[in-house]
TrEMBL record:
Top-level division of the source organism's lineage: Eukaryota
Protein name listed in UniProt: Ammonium transporter AmtB-like domain-containing protein
Main location (coarse class): membrane
Any one GO BP annotation for this protein: ammonium homeostasis
Molecular function via GO: ammonium channel activity
Pfam families in alphabetical order: Ammonium_transp
Entry keyword annotation includes Transport: yes
Species annotation: Meloidogyne enterolobii
Family: Belongs to the ammonia transporter channel (TC 1.A.11.2) family.
């Protein structure tokens, strides 16, 4: 529930703030034409999305540091282990240590399989590897593990993670299709993983 709420809030914030300058060139051109005409118009949804059903060009905005972004992703991954493992509330009674171990194993497996499934599907579709989006897919898998990592058998965490990677891909692409600029993919990570979890 926490991740669904966080994902929804990040979507609302991205809609209110709007896209970064230069991210969606055709949307900016449409808004300039609107200003030139001098009267208020309703912005129409994107119907003709380019030739042969392809989306118009989406500008990649550079300026991030891949090593620092990767470091931040890995810190978040270790944080998820403490978050999910600490959610049991205690380790003092008999048998709770085994539950904490199971929670951590399920969390790691969900994240790993989400990253792998996303990585291979992205490579098949685009022909290139990307570490930053793979880390986001891993975080989506860990988010999807939050709800039931203490109850699910270990083998089901692989299936849960694989589907979570596809949920990340679907929600991330949905944001691009709808021309929502979410620089961190927070909506796809938290809402997609939380919804599937």
């Amino acid at each position: 529930m926490v991740h669904l709420c966080g994902g929804t809030i990040s979507l609302i914030a991205a809609l209110l703030i709007g896209p970064r300058i230069g991210r969606f060139p055709e949307k900016e051109a449409r808004q300039k034409n609107k200003v030139k005409k001098g009267k208020q118009q309703r912005i129409t949804p994107l119907r003709n999305v380019g030739t042969e059903g392809k989306l118009p060009k989406i500008a990649e905005i550079k300026g991030h540091s891949v090593p620092f972004a990767s470091l931040g992703g890995f810190i978040l991954m270790f944080g998820f282990l403490a978050f999910n493992g600490g959610s049991t509330g205690e380790i003092s009674t008999k048998g709770v240590g085994q539950i904490v171990a199971k929670v951590m194993v399920n969390t790691i497996l969900c994240g790993a399989f989400a990253a792998l499934s996303y990585l291979f599907v992205h490579f098949i579709r685009k022909g290139k590897w990307t570490i930053l989006l793979t880390i986001n897919a891993c975080l989506t898998g860990m988010v999807s593990a939050c709800a039931g990592c203490d109850k699910m058998p270990v083998w089901t965490s692989a299936i849960t993670g694989s589907i979570a990677g596809m949920a990340y891909l679907a929600f991330s692409e949905l944001c691009l299709i709808m021309r929502i600029d979410d620089p961190l993919d927070a909506f796809a990570v938290h809402f997609g993983g939380g919804l599937w979890g």
